[in-house]
């Protein structure tokens, strides 16, 4: 499978990355080179093989259902949560107008 | 006799810890010597993004005070280290070498770094790396290339220190840090260690907590130590490893006494040599060092066994589907809302702000991988690419498990060549990816794997050998590494030009 400029533009839109026409033109051959190379995986007989889900078998754990059990994430840390926000306003994350 | 600053910076982890414990010198003296070495090398090597000499001194003073008070000292007591700038450090900028996190100051500490501080280590600074750990040469950093302290004989051309842990490898090999943290997603500890003539181990997936490490590909990312020898790696890995309830993939297993159990006697052990790693057109020096490694392990008492890892050639293409897929998902969090860079063009709405922010904040290689990941996960292509790659990953893992029915550890080269020059590979992303051909299979299978320095190539540059072990058998990897280290007699170091 190979990609054209329209496909690359669509991928960039899905990935929420603004790209110029020149950037798209440069990416088309690069992505096609990489995609052509990974195509060789199609040669492998994978009949009856399950896709890898956990590389080292491990039990999924549940934590105790206790509010504030972890002081880092347990609440009362609003200032810390907002400390790196580009627009932390009135205790909230500020964003441009979403609803017209 | 008090030691001079350059005598102190020649010491590794074990020697510093011992000297501090015995009172031969103070931790503050050690920190001061390394701080000065870092400051002197920084303009030439650019190994660090942020320097924190005061942190190194503060930790050292605490160790000296503990010793004076007769308190027990930790595994890393008095050892100042470099911290890859992928580990969140409270109050110290953590950038992942990307503009999108250029001003990010974490209000929390990663589990691994906290464990190191608890063990008595101090922080010299935050080390440069490939942006979001995506790269094999440290040329994708938003904060400039790291320059390897190594040079080819008779040349002043700038060489790559490897990547992504290129600041770590440059700092340790230049003797401006006795040890450093690294992270390894597809070779990012082992390949830079090989390029710079130092040791580094990626433990079994889950040994070191991923909590507080900026995520790249979560099913592959593992932290590990980079240091000058095998013993120092064992000491530091003990300090870094351990169960962490905050990481859902953390292994709930006790941390073995790797250092105390080090044993280079390999009698009764079987070492596998994978046929598929001996590729057509293999570099003659790499092949020679591999053959020497086989002879050294034989000399240590091991039996050598040829093995098949039939799906080896598919590991790299599988990796370049799986890792970008996970990266595209992980990096969706950088949206200009909660932290990091925001680019809000005049009159832009929310979606435009996301796209502008990510365009301004991510470097070209990061964008490339996000795009590939987005494509292979998109509707209609998911099964053909992602599911197929995960099935191939199962087969690669199965190859290793079959081999480990017969052998205890596997010996292979770490990288297909010695260090290349800066700029030599950047124009061809595929050629750069191929540099990880020997490192990626163990990553896909979650296995412990280590690089140890083994010799020099015809241009005087270091070459590494890789040891790959069974899941949870870091000891077997370290022991075989020690057997090679004892016989390789690798004492080469970069001549100081900075």
| Parts with pLDDT < 50 across at least 5 consecutive residues of chain B | none
Calculate the mean pLDDT score of chain A and round it.
91
Mean of residue pLDDT values of chain B? 97
Secondary-structure element pattern of chain B, one letter each:
HHHEHEHEHEHEEHEHEHHHHEHHEEH
The biggest beta sheet of chain B reads: 8 strands, mixed
Spatial order of the strands forming the largest sheet of chain A: 1-2
Q: How helical, in percent, are the residues of chain B?
A: 25-40%
* Total beta-strand segments of chain A: 2
**Secondary structure: helix percent of chain A:** 25-40%
Number of helices of chain A: 3
Give the DSSP E fraction of chain B (strand runs of 2 or more residues).
5-15%
> What's the gyration radius of chain B in Å?
21 Å
Please identify the top-level CATH class of one domain in chain A: Mainly Alpha
Largest interface, Cβ cutoff 8 Å: A-B, 54 and 74 residues
Oligomer: heterodimer
Largest sheet of chain A: 2 strands, antiparallel
Shape of chain B: globular
Name of the CATH first level of one domain in chain B: Alpha Beta
Gap from first CA to last CA of chain A? 40 Å
CATH topology of one domain in chain A: Histone, subunit A
At CATH's second level, what is the architecture of one domain in chain A?
Answer: Orthogonal Bundle
Description:
Chain A has a domain at 5-43: Orthogonal Bundle (Histone, subunit A). In chain A, 33% of the residues lie in helices and 4% in strands. Chain A has three helices and two strands; from the N terminus they run αααββ. In chain A, strands 1-2 form a two-stranded antiparallel ribbon. In chain A, strand 1 (88-89) and strand 2 (92-93) form a beta hairpin. The longest helix of chain A has 18 residues, at 21-38. Chain B is α/β, with parallel strands linked by helices. Chain B has a domain at 5-265 and 419-488: Amidase signature (AS) enzymes, CATH 3.90.1300. In chain B, strand 7, helix 9 and strand 8 (303-307) form a beta-alpha-beta unit. Chain B is globular. The relative contact order of chain B is 0.14. The mean pLDDT of chain B is 97. At the A-B interface, helix 1 and helix 2 of A face helix 10, helix 11, helix 12 and helix 13 of B.
């Amino acid at each position: 499978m190979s990609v054209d400029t329209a496909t690359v533009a669509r991928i960039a839109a899905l990935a929420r990355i603004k790209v110029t026409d020149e950037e798209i033109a440069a990416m088309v051959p690069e992505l096609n080179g990489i995609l052509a190379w990974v195509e060789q995986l199609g040669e492998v007989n994978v009949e009856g093989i399950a896709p890898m889900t956990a590389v080292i078998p491990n039990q999924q754990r549940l934590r105790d259902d206790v509010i504030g059990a972890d002081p880092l994430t347990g609440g009362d840390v609003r200032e810390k949560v907002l400390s790196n926000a580009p627009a932390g306003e009135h205790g909230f994350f500020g964003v441009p107008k979403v609803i017209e | 006799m008090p030691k001079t600053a350059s005598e102190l910076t020649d010491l590794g982890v074990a020697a510093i810890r011992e000297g501090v414990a015995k009172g031969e010198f103070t931790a503050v003296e050690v920190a001061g010597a390394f701080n000065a070495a870092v400051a002197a090398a920084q303009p030439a090597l650019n190994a660090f993004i942020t320097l924190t000499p005061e942190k190194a001194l503060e930790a050292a003073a605490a160790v000296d005070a503990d010793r004076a008070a007769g308190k027990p000292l930790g595994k890393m007591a008095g050892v100042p280290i470099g911290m890859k700038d992928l580990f969140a450090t409270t109050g110290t900028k953590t950038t992942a070498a990307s503009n999108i996190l250029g001003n990010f100051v974490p209000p929390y500490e990663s589990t691994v770094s906290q464990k190191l501080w608890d063990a008595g280590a101090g922080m010299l600074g935050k080390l440069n790396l490939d942006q979001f750990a995506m790269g094999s040469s440290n040329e994708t950093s938003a904060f400039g290339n790291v320059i390897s302290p190594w040079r080819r004989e008779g040349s002043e051309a700038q060489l790559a220190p490897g990547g992504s842990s290129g600041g770590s490898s440059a700092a340790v090999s230049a003797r401006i840090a006795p040890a450093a943290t690294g992270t390894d997603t597809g070779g990012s500890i082992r390949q830079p260690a090989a390029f710079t003539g130092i040791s580094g181990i990626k433990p079994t997936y889950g040994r070191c907590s991923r909590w507080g490490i900026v995520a790249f590909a979560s099913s592959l990312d593992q932290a590990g130590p980079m240091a000058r020898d095998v013993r120092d790696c064992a000491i530091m890995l003990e300090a870094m490893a351990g169960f962490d309830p905050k990481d859902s993939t953390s292994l709930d297993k006790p941390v073995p006494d790797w250092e105390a159990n080090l044993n280079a006697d390999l009698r009764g052990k079987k070492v596998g040599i994978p046929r598929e790693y001996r590729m057509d057109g293999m570099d003659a020096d790499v092949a020679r060092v591999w053959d020497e490694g086989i002879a050294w392990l034989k000399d240590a008492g091991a039996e050598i066994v040829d093995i098949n890892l039939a799906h080896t050639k598919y590991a790299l293409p599988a990796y370049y589907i799986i890792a970008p897929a996970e990266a595209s998902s992980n990096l969706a969090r950088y949206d200009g809302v909660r932290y990091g860079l925001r680019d809000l063009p005049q009159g832009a709405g929310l979606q435009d702000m996301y796209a502008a922010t990510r365009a301004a904040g991510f470097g070209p290689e990061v964008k490339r991988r996000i795009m590939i990941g987005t494509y292979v996960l998109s509707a209609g292509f998911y099964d053909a690419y992602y599911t197929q790659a995960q099935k191939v990953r199962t087969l690669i893992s199965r190859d290793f498990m079959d081999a480990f029915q017969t052998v205890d550890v596997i010996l292979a080269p770490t990288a297909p060549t010695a260090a290349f020059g800066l700029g030599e590979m950047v124009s061809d992303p595929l050629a750069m990816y191929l540099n990880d051909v020997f490192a990626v299979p163990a990553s896909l299978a979650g296995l412990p794997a280590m690089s140890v320095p083994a010799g020099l190539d015809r241009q005087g540059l270091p070459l590494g050998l890789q040891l790959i072990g069974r899941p949870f058998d870091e000891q077997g990897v370290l022991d075989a590494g020690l057997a090679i280290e004892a016989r390789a007699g690798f004492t080469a170091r970069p001549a100081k030009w900075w």
